[in-house]
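Review form for a predicted model. The reviewer records the input and the model, then writes brief findings.
Reviewer: anonymous (R2)
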Amino acid sequence: MAAKNTAAVQLNNTYVRPTGSAARNILFSALLMALSARKELISPGSPIYDYALAQSPEALKVATYIQNGLFYFLFGAHAVEVPLFAYIKLAKHGISLFSLAWWQWAATCFVGGKFCWDHFENVLVKKASSS
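Model under review:
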């Protein structure tokens, strides 16, 4: 199946909520971001600490390193993605800067990252095939 040309598709300030696998992937990304921001997840007294990390002092160091790495990577990459997404995708497809639809797409991009880009592309393809 050939891909539709989506360059001329205009969404006219509309937001399409992700469903199915797109919604699942975006929610998973949001959950991973939320968990990477919670130091309590691997602190003494938490189930993860009690059952896995308390056995070795190195394990806590490694878990902290992994959690910090995930946090800075996910929040940093997604913070950079939002203005790129706004400029590359939203502005070119009829989403006005700071409109309600813009904020909805920006929030979805911040928590979903690449999965939001894929969802947006699917929305454009569906709109192109319906018109």
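Findings: The first helix runs from residue 20 to 36.
Further findings: The CA atoms of residues 13 and 100 lie 8 Å apart.
Recommendation: see findings above.
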